[in-house]
Amino acid sequence: MSKIHWILQNNLIKPEIKESIIKTLQQDFISYEEVQVIPFSDSLPLIHQKADKYVFYGSSTLIFNAYNHPIYQKGVFYDENTFTIENYNQQWGTKMLNHDAIITSLADFSQRNYPLESQWFIRPTSDSKAFSGSVMQFSEIQAFTKNIEESNNPYLSTQTLIAVSSPKKIEKEWRHFIVNKEVVSSSRYAQNGHLSISNTDISDDLINFIESCCEQYTPHNIFVMDTALCQDKYFIIECNCFNGTGFYSHDIEAIIQKINQFLSSC
Fold first, then answer.
1. Are 242 and 231 in contact, with CB atoms under 8 Å apart?
2. For residue 131, is pLDDT > 90?
3. CA dist 197 to 86, 191, 223, 249, 254, Å?
């Protein structure tokens, strides 16, 4: 059996989340270590334990540096070519909420001739979390782009690819942790645009929709999918890399155990 070792960031993560992960690892005799991460650092903290397989969990800085490290890359469940809105739209088509998205750059889009008050939903095409997706007026997008031109943000430039689509009226939003095409744990996190957390508002139709999507395609064996209810239909909002994704009212123990079981079997 493969030796699995988890690396957990001990700063910038909610203590109760970290403790839930640690408790599960301890009861299943899976080794782990905690590391301190300096924001925007371009190097990994020293990893003390050797293992056959690693799993990283923490902020974008930790995950980005691990993904770019030749030894630890597989401890990040991510592929920069598959975790993009462009790829999701190609694979899932109209099952995507924003299947009408235009793929362009901030610089290109901000120079287009749209009414200043016109509204657009914009977000990065990748799972980089360079900025949060939001609905903005065209004038706000132009101002946002100008501010980026003048900043020194290492993760965001005016050439960053974005997906631009029409705003949608979303009734509910959920987050699902998926391992080997199985929905392990789900939680609603928003209702009518406001934070609203529930692990009971999970219908069979929603799970069936997700599993049918996973039979069609998955960007990774271990990943996170956000879904929406819009005009009485379920849609995929986006997918996320597990290693840096937050939990709501999820069964953390079940998720961690399922990941370890999957890694032990392959």
1. no
2. no
3. 29, 8, 20, 7, 18
Mean pLDDT of all residues in the chain?
A: 95
**DSSP per-residue letters across 34-96:** EE---TT-SSPPPP----SEEEEES-HHHHHHHHTSTTTGGGS---TTTSBHHHHHHHHGGGB
Tokens 């293992």 map to which residue? 51
Rounded CA gap, 126 and 164, in Å? Answer: 13
Tell me which architecture the domain covering 98-165 has in CATH.
Answer: 2-Layer Sandwich (3.30)
- Judge whether 94 and 87 are in contact, CB under 8 Å: no
The reply to whether 98-165 and 169-249 are identical in fold is no
pTM comes to 0.93
Specify the residue for token string 């994704």.
Answer: 245
Domain ranges (residues) in the chain = 4-75, 98-165, 169-249
d(C-alpha 89, C-alpha 210), whole Å: 15
126 residue type, one letter = S
Lookup: tokens for 199: 């692990």
* Topology adopted by domain 169-249: D-amino Acid Aminotransferase; Chain A, domain 1 (3.30.470)
Distance CA 130, CA 124 (A): 7
